[in-house]
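REVIEWER CHECKLIST
Item 1: Sequence provided? yes
Item 2: Single chain? yes
Item 3: Sequence as submitted:
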Amino acid sequence: TKHVIKNILWTTAKNFTVERGREQIEELISTWDIHESWLHHSEFLEEEELKDSKRYHYRACWGIPTRRKPIPQATASVYFVIVISKLKPDTAPVEVFYRLESSRLIRRPEQCPFREKWLKDIIENKTACTERL
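Item 4: Structure as written out by the authors:
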């Protein structure tokens, strides 16, 4: 099946704040095709100063609470980086990347549709690992 990539209009460098970044990540997540049983929270982790850019790191932590287990046995995290270039004008939009906790592959929201299966795979792998222990 063909996935439609939904993207959002990212804020400009000059209008960026840490909280605005978190709000925009939430806005992006709201475009993802994920079952309503998945719940998440997002948080700002750190600011990183580089020669050519500033990077803002965030995490969204996912789980499926149930009546029997309101605290999920395992969670899956998605890490986001918002990059503000020091070389581009401050009217340019920020750049956004994300990766899954189990992967080193870095994705761009406008190029790769998010798949719920990725979250399921992380949780299944953690559960299987815990059961082996």
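Item 5: Key structural point noted by reviewer: Helices lie at 18-31, 116-132.
Item 6: Recommendation: ____
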